[in-house]
Each structure stands twice: as C-alpha cells, then as structure tokens.
C-alpha cells in the first residue's frame, strides 16, 4: 500500500480497513505522530516505511530490523511479542492465550470452551435462556403499556 507523498498530516481513518496489508509506505508525508492504536489488527504487516521524524510503531523492539536512511525509517519483520523472552506488561488471564494484534500489540483470546470477562465462564453463551428472558420481558411490557395506554387513544 503506497501512501507516500499524499500530504497526510495524520493517519487516514480508512487505514484501519487495510489490515491485510503486507507492506505500507508513509514516507514523504508531513506526519507528526503515529497514534499507538493506528496499526491495530495489522498482523500481516512485514514492511513499513515511515518519515525519519517518526519512530516505528511499537518501538524498535516490535521489529526485527529497523533501517534508517537519509529521509525515512524502514521497519521490517514484525515480531510476535507473545513469543518473545521479554515479559508482557499485561499477562493474559488463566484460560486464555496470547495472540499478536499488530506491531507491538497483543490480545488475549479465550481458550475453548471458556468465554466472558477474563475467560472465567465455561461452556457456550446461553442464547436460548437469554432470548427467552428478553422476549418474555418485551412482550409483558408491551402488553402492559398497550393495556394502560389504549384508553387514552381517541376513537373516531
């Protein structure tokens, strides 16, 4: 994806839809910062060229090779922080596994069959129970409102 010399002052909002990109060029743009979450989901990104004034997203530890030339930085070979010897700043909870989520970013995914907050619930989500309670509450409230409010409706 070549976005070089596009007069970008910030990362375009539509960039978040290009998570399948393998190479990205942002050189020759008047970018001042790259927000931390700009490359969330870019797990396939292997080559990123940024203006010299900016650092590679995730820092130099997130890349295998950072090359600086006279006008740009080339960040190559995104590292998987889950496999590194450096301990994560936030460990994944029990019943979950670490997964990469972009340069310098990780996410914790629940192991099967766990789900919910901190992967503490086991089994599947109780869809039938949830739908039954929600449906019953909706029908009951609708009937109550219909019964109490229909006397206010004027008949022709």
From TrEMBL:
Entry keyword annotation includes Cell division: no
Gene Ontology biological process: positive regulation of osteoblast differentiation
Key words, A-Z: Membrane, Transmembrane, Transmembrane helix
UniProt domain EGF-like: residue ranges: 108-119
Transmembrane segments: 125-146
InterPro entries: ATRAID (IPR042350), EGF (IPR000742), LRR_dom_sf (IPR032675)
Keyword Chloroplast in record: no
Domain of life: Eukaryota
UniProt name for this protein: ARAID factor
Source organism of this protein record: Picathartes gymnocephalus (White-necked rockfowl)
């Amino acid at each position: 994806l070549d976005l070089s010399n596009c007069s970008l002052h910030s990362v375009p909002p539509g960039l978040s839809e290009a998570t399948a990109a393998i190479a990205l060029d942002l050189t020759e743009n008047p970018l001042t910062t790259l927000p931390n979450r700009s490359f969330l989901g870019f797990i396939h990104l292997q080559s990123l060229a940024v203006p010299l004034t900016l650092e590679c997203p995730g820092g130099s530890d997130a890349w295998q090779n950072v090359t600086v030339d006279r006008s740009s930085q080339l960040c190559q070979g995104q590292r998987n922080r889950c496999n590194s010897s450096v301990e994560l700043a936030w460990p994944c909870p029990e019943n979950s596994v670490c997964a990469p989520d972009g340069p310098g970013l990780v996410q914790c995914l629940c192991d099967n069959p766990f789900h919910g907050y901190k992967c503490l619930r086991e089994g599947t989500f109780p869809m039938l129970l949830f739908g039954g309670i929600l449906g019953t509450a909706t029908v009951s409230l609708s009937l109550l409102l219909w019964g109490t409010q229909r006397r206010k409706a004027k008949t022709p």
